Amino acid sequence: MTAPRDRVLDVHDRPPPATFFLLSLQHLFAMFGANVLVPILTGLDPSVALVTSGLGTLIYLAFTKWRLPAYLGSSFAFIGPIVAATQIGGTGGALVGACAAGAVYVAVALLIRAFGVRWLLAILPPIVVGPVIVVIGLGLASVAVGMAQNTAGGGEYSLPHFLLALATLGSIFLYSIVLRGFFTVVPILLGILTGYALGVVFGMVDFGPVAAAPFLRMPDFHLLFSGMKEGVSAWAMILLVAPVALVTIAEHIGGQIVLSRVVGRNFIADPGLHRSVFGDGVATMVAGALGGPPATTYGENIGVLAVTRVFSVWVIGGAATLAIILGFVGKLSAFLSSIPTAVMGGVSIALFGVIASSGIRTLIEGKVDLGDKRNLLISSTILVIGIGGASLKFGDGGFVVSSMALSALMGVVLNAVLPGRGTGGDAEAILSSDHI
């Protein structure tokens, strides 16, 4: 495959010492908002999530032989199941389910290693994967807009917050297009700093928590099985959370396809999908064992790669190391937490669309005929359910299938039962370096 001509650093290129820290810090900023939002919504410790995301990323890089520049952060797809599991079995029960979800990844990776990937791609052809990628990008659009408008978490609409988000977004566009030299590779970081400065000027930054925070603090690690309610079966927790992994694997494949397109390498072939799925699974198991949420490759960081054209695994590893350190530094963690939510909303708006556009590209390059009624019905169902926020809930506080998971499940089922499976696109195109 022809590599992108405008790449700044290739996968194994080590950045100069003067820029190494800034490039890694940019990735840390990009993932920070979403990574800590998941534990906040699920009742876990954000500092633990930072540590486990960094540790999980290093594990992932090791299992993928340091050939795949992807950052692993907290997975939004598991929010519903973890909340439900916590209500039924306590935090310990939710973590047992999270570890089991990682074990599902490992099992699927071993099957891919033994039988290849084509059986999986037959289940997940372009007509399923393409719309799922769009859902990955746009399914959380409401979260990004909610952060931008101060409505995330039930807050009231705030015009100043939204204007700050738009200013942050506009500065990222400006820096990406106008700046030259080194500054062309850190537009996201510069945008965040610009938004933060504006937030300080307009009194939207609270330095009180920063002043009160200790310099060092121990994250609230929650070891496996501790805090699990008495009388609750571990198998019940596993059945509640683990099945979601079968769906998030589709998200994982979509992320690998996007990353392959952005970087210009066929990562599904080399280092291999089995390695990336295995690494993701082990990272999720480690996160669950320490009290963190399940891990997933982060669209925000893929977006940073797409914008900056810096593909170095050294930079990703640096960001992971910074995240681990940050989890123990109370002052620094409090400082990053002081970044206005609106600023991170503006950044998220800038990055999520990159993923959705890659889903459309998958449909095009997979030669999916949307004039075919079958394909039109499958894609429209996935998009409406995923972006519309539909979900399945069984019982009062029981099993919950999130909208992202449900949309992927519907796509798989419809592709399997509707006549004319051969019209769902060229799955081999996903494996071909000429199409990725």
TrEMBL record:
Its main location: membrane. GO terms for molecular function: xanthine transmembrane transporter activity. One of its GO terms (cellular component) is plasma membrane. It comes from the Bacteria. Belongs to the nucleobase:cation symporter-2 (NCS2) (TC 2.A.40) family. PANTHER family: PURINE PERMEASE C1399.01C-RELATED. The chain crosses the membrane at residues 20-41, 47-63, 70-88, 94-112, 119-147, 159-178, 185-212, 232-250, 310-330, 342-364, 376-392, 398-418. Keywords: Membrane, Plasmid, Transmembrane, Transmembrane helix, Transport. The keyword Membrane applies. This is Uracil permease. It is found in: Membrane. NCBIfam families: ncs2 (TIGR00801). The lineage of its organism: Bacteria, Pseudomonadati, Pseudomonadota, Alphaproteobacteria, Rhodospirillales. It is a multi-pass membrane protein. InterPro entries: NCS2, Xan_ur_permease. It comes from Azospirillum baldaniorum. The keyword Membrane applies.
